[in-house]
Amino acid sequence: MAKPLRLQQGQVWKQGGIFLRIVRLERLAVEFISTTSLDIKGGAHHQVTKKEFCRLLKTAVLQPPASTPAPRRVRPE
After folding, report:
1. What string of DSSP letters covers 20-67?
2. Cα–Cα distance between 45 and 21 in angstroms, integer?
3. pTM for the whole thing?
4. What is the pLDDT of residue 1?
5. What is the rounded CA–CA span in Å between residue 51 and residue 53?
């Protein structure tokens, strides 16, 4: 059995040609931005119930998180 995924702020989901980024996550509501490209910072804002959002994600795929650069070591002086 697959492990259920937990919704988190900042997650990006791809549904067809549209990317959905979770901006704010509450107990019963989700606010997200839909864009056609990951490079676009803006987009259409939507606010739906968590139940509606989960129905929307049934055919969506979670995108891997953006890689952050590894911290550099500080050399002792």
Report:
1. EEEEEE-SSEEEEEEESSTT-S--EEEEEEHHHHHHHGGG-EEPPPPP
2. 10
3. 0.77
4. 58
5. 5
